[in-house]
């Protein structure tokens, strides 16, 4: 199956969306730069994903937790969690191309804010990284509600159309 990958302009938007989303989440949770270092994360796009980081169905992103070991010169010998936000370019581009209400930049911001809220919750031990399927839907609803709350306070053009999409609110139905 051929995957569609982000082009250079879209990769620029990815980088901008990461920066804006990190700032929005930091402001919402009152997180300093040093606190972010404890919630280490990175972003990969389709071009750099390993087979285990790829998802074949219509998932826009997934977070994978890796165990990191600092270099001997780092001063802190403890292992740490590194959360990798793995963007699924093909699914994101398909949604943008087939849904006239979805613009790529606010969509990327939604995805990043959503995944960063998960990472904050993992880092603060508010949610275990591994949860049973029965708890996944309530967790997704809670994370979507936080994401909506964070993004609703912005002037980001097109964000209202994003947070009202069926895939964004599917976990909100009772």
Structure explained in plain terms:
It is a single chain. This protein is mainly α and 174 residues long. The protein has one domain. Helices cover 50% and strands 11% of the residues. It contains seven helices and three strands. The protein has helices spanning 8-29, 33-38, 89-98, 104-123, 133-152, 159-163, 166-169; strands at 41-44, 61-68, 80-87. It has a three-stranded mixed β-sheet with strand order 1-3-2, covered by helices on one side. Helix 4 (104-123) crosses helix 5 (133-152). The longest helix has 22 residues, at 8-29.
Ordered list of secondary-structure elements with their pairings:
Elements (H helix, E strand, L loop, with lengths): L7 H22 L3 H6 L2 E4 L16 E8 L11 E8 L1 H10 L5 H20 L9 H20 L6 H5 L2 H4 L5
Parallel strand pairs: 1-3
Antiparallel strand pairs: 2-3
Helix pairs in contact: 1-4, 4-5
Q: Approximately how much beta-strand content do the residues carry? A: 5-15%
Radius of gyration, Cα only, in angstroms?
16 Å
- How far is it from the N-terminal to the C-terminal residue, by CA? 36 Å
Supply the number of structural domains. 1
Write a concise keyword list for the protein shown above.
single chain, three-stranded mixed sheet, 50% helix, mainly alpha
């Amino acid at each position: 199956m051929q995957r569609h990958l982000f082009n250079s302009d879209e990769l620029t938007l990815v980088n901008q969306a990461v920066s804006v989303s990190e700032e929005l989440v930091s402001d919402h949770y009152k997180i300093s730069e040093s606190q972010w270092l404890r919630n280490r994360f990175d972003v990969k796009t389709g071009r750099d994903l390993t087979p285990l980081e790829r998802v074949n169905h219509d998932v826009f992103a997934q977070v994978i937790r890796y165990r990191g070991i600092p270099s001997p010169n780092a001063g802190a010998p403890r292992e740490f969690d590194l959360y990798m936000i793995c963007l699924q370019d093909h699914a994101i581009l398909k949604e943008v191309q087939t849904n006239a209400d979805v613009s790529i930049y606010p969509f990327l911001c939604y995805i990043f804010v959503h995944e960063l809220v998960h990472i904050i919750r993992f880092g603060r031990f508010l949610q275990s990284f591994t949860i049973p399927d029965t708890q996944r839907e309530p967790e997704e609803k809670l994370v979507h509600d936080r994401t909506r709350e964070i993004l609703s306070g912005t002037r980001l053009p097109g964000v209202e159309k994003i947070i009202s999409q069926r895939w964004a609110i599917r976990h909100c139905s009772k």
